[in-house]
Each structure stands twice: as C-alpha cells, then as structure tokens.
Here is the input.
Amino acid sequence: MIAARRLAAAYALFGMLLTIPLSSTPVLPLIDLYNHMARFYVLSRLDLPEFAGNYIPDWRLLPNLGADLLGVPLMHVLPALLTAKVLVGLVLLVQFSGLIFLATGINRRSLPLVLPFSAMLCYSYILGWGFVNFLLGVGVMLWTLGFWVRLRAQPLKAILICAPGAALIFLCHGFALLIYGLIASMIELGFWWQDRGRRPVDLLRGWAALAVQAVLPITMFLTTPTADAEGTSTVSNIRAYMGNGQFSERVSLEAAYRLKTIYRVAESPWLLLDVVTFLVVLATAIIALRRRWWRLDRRLLPAIILLGIGAVAIPTNFFSASYLSERMALMFALVAVAGLSVTGGQGRGPVAAVSVIWVVAIVRLLATGWGWAAYAPAFAHYEKMIQTVPKGALAADFIIRDLDRRDSVMPRCQMYLPLLVPLRHAVAPIFAIPGQQPVKLGGALEKAIEQISPGKEAPRMAPARYADDLRRVAGSSFDYVLICGANRFTGPVPPNLRLLGEGQNIRLYRIEGPDPRG
Here is the structure.
C-alpha cells in the first residue's frame, strides 16, 4: 500500500514537472510547431473569406495525419495558443506513459529509472524541431511495443491488439511505423536468442505474427499519394552540395551534427547544460552497470545495436522523411532506457546512482521552463508589432541562417510568421506538401510563392543570395515580410520595404509597391 502511494506520488510529481516548460511561456520555441498549428487553424475555419481560395482542403488517407486529426477539432473549441500547448502536452503524456508501459512490461524493477529518464527524453531534440506527428507516433509505438512484449506468448491476442496499434502508428507517421517494425523484429530476435530452448521455427513464428500486423498499414500506404510522391534524397542532396561547392563543408557539419543529436538527445535551451548532464548521466550509467547496480536487459540488445548504427549511418532523407539521424538517436535512447532496471546492491552507491538521475531530470525540466520563459517578453512585443496587419494580408517569412539549419537562428523565431494566420487572419505559406498534409495552397498565395521561388539552384547560404532573395520578395505580390534572424542580415534592404517594428532577432516590413530598382 505504501509502495503504491509512493508510485502515485512519483507519477503526480513528474506530471506536474512535465507541464512547467509548457506553462512558462505563451509561445513554445519549437521550430515547426506553429506551422502545423496554422494549418489546423485554417482547416477549422475554411469558411472565412480571407482563407477561401488560398487554402484548399485535401483530406485523404496519409501517413502523417495524427496531429491533424487531433489539432483541427481542438482549434474549433480552444484558442490557437492554448491548442498548441494542449496538443504538445498530449504528445508528451502519450510518450511518457508509453515508455513506462514498455519498460514495466520488460522488468517491473525499471520504474525508479524509467520515470526520470522518460521525463528527460520527453523534451527531446526532436521536440525542438516541433515534429509533433512523429512524436505522437513514437508514443503510440511505445504503447504497442509494450503490448507486444506482454502478449507475444499469445500470438492471436497480441495480433488483435497490436495490429490496430500499428495502423494507428501509420496514421501518425509513416517512418514511425517503419521503426516500429524494425524494433519489434529485433526485440523478438532478442527474446528468442535468450530462450535456452530456442528453435528457428519459434523465431519465424514470432516474425510472422509481426508481419501480419504490417498487412493493414502497407495496404493503407499503397492507397495514399505518398506512395508515388517524389522528394529529396541522399543522392540529390549530395549532388546539390557538390554543385554549389559546399560538399566538404556539409560533410564536416553533418558529422558534428550527428554527434550533437546524441549528446543533445534530451535538449534544454542551453548547450552547456546538455553536455554536462549528458556526461553525468553517461558516467553514472557506466558505473552502475559495471558494478551491477543496474541491469540492461540483453533481450533488447539487438534493437539497441540496430538503432545505434542507424543514428550514426542512416541517410539524411529516406521514406519521405528528413532529419532521420536525430529520430534514430531518440529511439536508441528510449529503447535503451526501457531495458534498464535496478538490481540493488550494498551501500549507498545504488541509491546515489538513481538519485543522480532524478536530480538531473528535475534540474533539466526546471531549466527548460526558465529558458522558455525568456520568450514571453519577446512574444508580447511581437503581438504589438503585428496589430496593424489586416485580415487577408499576404505575408512571407525570410529566415537568415547558415548551413546549420537548426541552431544558426537563435533565439528561435520560426514560429512568428505562421502565428500571423491564427492571430491576425493573415494569409501565409504553411506546410502543404503533397502526400504529407491534407491541404493545398492556391489563389493569390500560390501565385505569390511562385514569384519568390528561385529559378535555379544557387549557393543557398551565401550573403549575396540572401540579398537577391529579399529583392525578389520585395518585388512580389506579398504585402508583408517578416525577417527571422534579422541580426544576421547584413545586406541592403530594398527601398520599398517600410519597417513596422523589430525586436530580438525579427523585423516586420510592409511591402509598399514594387521595388523601384526592379
């Protein structure tokens, strides 16, 4: 009874701690999040005249719909800023509880470790990108893996429960489904290998039961436009960088970036904190495992090894998805944590090791909340800045960054242009990739986007290119342009751009007629 109360108290504590960063700021500094929110808002208000023609609903079966199916209904009843927090909170809850469910299915002695580790990994490098569809799929995947581990000895029951789970993972994110298949197959291999009476036929039966789960998702995928969609690939990216003379620079950046996705797999607003806590956690885990205070379940080793290789060697683009190394690094951490358990030991060492992880988790959550709170005054200034933007105005963004597409723009400001859609009913580019999102762009917005699209590939991060691109925007039919990362822009500003306001690293300009220089 006492143990149950302590467990309930631990859940309640971490439930409250998980909400601290979300409640510390009106706008969450997650790079792609508000672009998705703008789409949800548009799809919930297509009857508005300023949106009509510019945004065209395109609801079809897609392997990227999970957040849309939740976000659009929420937008009908909640304000846009609150919807973002509710949706992210739900994603965190599904992931947090899913990891606990998987870990306790493997070993119930994992709870003292999985609670703080799951809290840390909820605020991940992937969350910083704002990939809510993928993270929702990860949460559902963890729950499905938990059911598989518990029910694999009863194949029919396991299939009846896990097959719908696999279909739900597919609806959230196609790449999450692929990872689920790989992890489940490797877990099955690990369980079979540790079985003293193992027979090859037993492994084949387990894999066959997993294959049955894939029938419905694969059938669904083949009926989607995503199956025929074209996109960037590793080969096309290599050709592009070789063509613009940035290949060697990109290779070194990619190596450093993949290392960063590992030591910042759990991300706070501060690099130094991430490096220090990563080293502390790594050292603690090594000591605890060597002294046998903790145990890593060997049945998960095949999955852990495969995910570790993937984090280092997987192509950047694959399966209509990008930024795959950081996704694999997160999955590696989640599965490794699911396999950890406390075995005990003599003296203060075992208690100290677990205590270190709890302290690190609490410090990181509090630090993330403190760091995110710094966006509150900037957002208040932004709200005043945009008050003159009228309904239906065409607005473009202009992001100044270098080859590091993620962290070269700090503080983050990618959320401000899409927020013009719900806050001012402006018309701005949003994610509407064919085969990935249930919306198309049309009308005046589509024409304006065509006007600012470069005619051919050029060195993408050169200062001269930024000046050319801004002149193209100034000569387009857009009414406003918001420069994100304005503190990095050193080129001339076209004379037909009138500054309406600036703060931190953003500037809002009104485009007043065509650029007189043509």
In short: Residues 221 and 227 are 6 Å apart (CA to CA). Residues 80-106 form the longest helix (27 residues). Residues 231-245, 456-460 have pLDDT under 50 and may be disordered.
